[in-house]
Design a protein that fits this description.
The complex is a heterodimer. Chain A is α/β, with parallel strands linked by helices. Helices cover 40% and strands 13% of the residues of chain A. Helix content of chain B is 40%, strand content 18%. The chains are: A alpha/beta, B alpha+beta. The complex binds iron/sulfur cluster. The site of iron/sulfur cluster has 13 residues of chain A, from helix 3 and helix 5.
């Protein structure tokens, strides 16, 4: 126990400011506060994201997982990954859509309550990537579902994914 | 017969290009089976199995098996003459001798339409493994006359799972979409109360047609696809591809590049082990572990950007060398990282070891006994956790592992606790190797030109990834094209083992057991 506590104490707080949408205009911390208060005002709770791997190589998953490490501290920013599409505001899709995952992806999308925000990440999700469309792959996510935003990169960095999440929810929040 | 077979082997096997000592031999139907049985008895393991459509060359389909022996790898090929009219072929199945062949044989059928005959004449498992209904039953995408870019409508068909009957037995179906950020696959549990009686996995959801795609690419860019077979094993797969191509073209990778590849491979091992150690703590209810290990992993990834130009190295290893040279300031930064990791991981290890709740969840859970692991041909860290000493870096060290004397790390209990300890020990061993590599880093170029490989030659690349050995078998086509490229991930071997490891454990322990194996879906599905 002493060991555990001492490690916590020595490690301290590592969380970095959220990425800035327009780096030259915004200072980092107002961005975070702003997003949190916007999310709170509109949703009255955290933004809930459901991730679906529609056929990725698992590289994109690694960077989504990185978002949970203390440097990015996603939950601290009011963003939460949830276990069911029925609890989700946003569907985060990785990979080209393999034909074997097409139906499962559509079903997951159907289960998300309106308004359904969809974000496709990685070169694969955005445009099919190296796999493209073939007998086994439908290519980009947009070939199967309506997509709001895309984030390229192979895999995209956690910062790029985070920025993408902000860009996806910003207009939706503004509208609401 | 034994004498005849070894005599037959000695007389007919020819050298094969590759980074490990490798030979190949052609076998007729009888020899194909006899060799398999004899190899099994002499302790060889079946590393992979693939098929090829060579009807355009000699009117044959081929089935190829690669075995791992103490003296290196052996490729056994069996050609099946086929008539234009029927275009079907079959070969004696290996599943009765090497159970691991079962799913690979189903995959070969899905892609090429050549089927395995059951040794005892029993009904073969005809359920599609990679084909879930995304292309018609009569279409075999890996045949030369099949159009790989043609899209077909999805027609989903039922997939009958094996059922368990008895009073109080019920089924739980999970997937393909899971609750966390993990890859898709379907698991069917037969349970009584909480206790798992049986688990059957159905995979293939992320099949992306990698083998067919390779055939549309030039040899000079296949490494990019190889790196994307399983993103968490990118360095190992791209290295396996490049070393296969280099051995085919007699290219010598410059010593500096070879060493940087090894350094990158150890970073890949470290990143995965650190991530897994955190996730395993978390799955056993100790979120503290995830916080601290994920932080260390992030530190490592950020150093990767300094040393290799990216967090994940999907574009680092390329034919003839590596993409980015190690900047002058990197070694100091890396040595600093290694010290920090060494201290922190040692500290976290003592926290894990002393945490009664954690050890209670780890010990005895998901036990894979050594005899089953042996029988089913376990590979990589899963095998080592069940007491099987196998690590290509130790058994067949290729450059730059040939001068660092890697330690083979094993555990005997085969439970989650053993797989946790293996990761700790291997992390420390990796840190030692990284330091050794950095200390002796030669100066010089980081790339050598790679000519086109002569058509129809075959080269093997086998690399011990963090998960176990990955293999690329590359057959050159004319004018720098790829005729056939088969990729194999050790997850093929280890997925069926989870089904044994969970028996008798409770359903809530499944995520923990699954994580302790941490197998690749994409690597298996291809
Ligand atoms: S974008 Fe890159 S990392 Fe992501 S799934 Fe595709 S190949 Fe893998």
């Amino acid at each position: 126990m002493w060991n555990t506590l001492s490690r916590m104490w020595k490690t301290g707080l590592l969380t970095e400011p959220l990425p800035v949408l327009q780096p030259s205009l915004d200072a980092p911390s107002p961005e975070l506060d702003h997003l949190q208060s916007q999310l709170l005002a509109v949703l009255g709770r955290a933004l809930c994201i459901r991730h679906v791997d529609a056929g990725s190589c698992n590289g994109c998953e690694l960077e989504i997982q990185a978002l949970h490490n203390p440097y990015y501290n996603l939950e601290g920013a009011g963003i939460q990954f949830v276990a069911s599409p029925r609890h989700a505001d946003l569907l985060l899709v990785t990979g080209p859509v393999s034909v074997n995952m097409e139906e499962a992806l559509r079903r997951t999308y159907d289960a998300v309550p309106a308004p359904k925000l969809v974000m496709a990440i990685g070169d694969c999700g955005a445009c099919g990537g190296i796999f493209g469309a073939s007998y086994a792959s439908r290519g980009s996510v947009a070939n199967v579902l309506p997509v709001n935003t895309t984030v390229t990169g192979c895999p995209p960095t956690p910062t790029a994914i985070l920025r993408g999440i902000l860009e996806t929810v910003r207009p939706a929040l503004a509208k609401a | 017969m034994t004498l005849q077979l070894s005599d037959f082997l000695e007389r007919h096997r020819r050298p094969l290009a590759g980074n490990l000592p490798a030979t190949r031999i052609s076998a007729d139907r009888e020899q194909w089976l006899q060799l398999a049985a004899w190899l099994r008895e002499s302790g060889a393991r079946l590393l992979t199995l693939w098929g090829a459509d060579d009807r355009d060359r000699d009117g044959c389909f081929r089935i190829c098996a690669v075995y791992l022996l103490t003296e290196g790898v052996l490729l056994v090929e069996h050609a099946m003459k086929t008539t234009e009219a029927t275009a079907s072929a079959s070969y004696p199945g290996l599943a009765a001798i090497f159970p691991v062949a079962q799913r690979m044989q189903r995959a070969v059928y899905d892609l090429l339409g050549i089927s395995a005959e059951q040794a005892d004449g029993s009904e073969a498992d005809r359920r599609g493994w990679l084909r879930h209904g995304g292309w018609p039953e009569t279409c075999f995408p890996l045949r030369r006359d099949a159009n790989g870019s043609r899209q077909h409508p999805n027609v989903s068909a039922p997939y009958p799972f094996v059922t368990v009957e008895g009073s109080g037995v019920h089924e739980i179906a999970v997937g393909p979409v899971h609750a966390g950020t993990i890859e898709p696959g379907h698991f069917r549990f037969s349970v009584v109360g909480e206790k798992m009686l049986r688990l059957e996995a159905r995979l293939g959801y992320t099949h992306k047609g990698v083998a067919k795609l390779f055939e549309t690419m030039p040899q000079s860019s296949g490494h990019r696809l190889a790196a994307r077979i399983s993103g968490d094993t990118a360095v190992a797969f791209s290295w396996a591809y490049c070393t296969a191509l280099e051995s085919l073209t007699a290219t010598v990778c410059p010593p500096r590049a070879t060493l940087l590849r090894a350094l990158a491979l150890e970073h890949e091992r470290l990143a995965n082990h650190l991530g897994d150690l955190g996730a395993l703590g978390n799955d056993a209810g100790f979120a503290f572990g995830l916080t601290h290990f994920s932080r260390l992993k992030e530190d490592l990834l950020r150093c990767n950007t300094v040393a290799f130009g990216a967090r994940y190295l999907l574009d680092y290893v390329l034919p003839g060398g590596v993409a980015v040279d190690l900047p002058a300031e990197a070694p100091a930064r890396l040595l600093g990282l290694y010290s920090e990791l060494e201290q922190s991981v040692a500290n976290l290890r003592s926290i894990y070891d002393e945490h009664a709740g954690l050890q209670d969840r780890f010990r005895g859970t998901g036990r894979l006994q050594q005899p089953i692991a042996e029988k089913l041909g376990a590979l990589g860290l899963v095998a080592r956790a069940s007491g099987i000493a196998c690590d290509l870096r130790v058994d067949h060290p290729w450059p730059s592992y040939d001068w660092v004397a890697t330690k083979c790390i094993t555990q005997s209990t085969g439970d989650v606790a053993a797989r946790v300890q293996i990761r700790f020990d291997e992390a420390f061993e990796s840190l030692r190797l990284c330091r050794a590599f950095l200390q002796d880093i030669p100066v010089g170029p980081i790339q050598a030109p790679v000519p086109a490989a002569a058509p129809y030659r075959l080269g093997l690349g086998v690399i011990e990834s963090w998960r176990g050995p990955v293999l690329i078998a590359l057959e050159a086509g004319p004018d720098g094209s790829i005729r056939r490229c088969h990729a194999h991930d050790p997850s093929w071997q280890n997925w069926p083992l989870i089904e044994y490891a969970v028996i008798g454990d409770i359903v809530p322990d499944f995520p923990l057991i699954n994580k302790s194996f941490n197998l690749s879906y994409s690597g298996q599905d291809g």
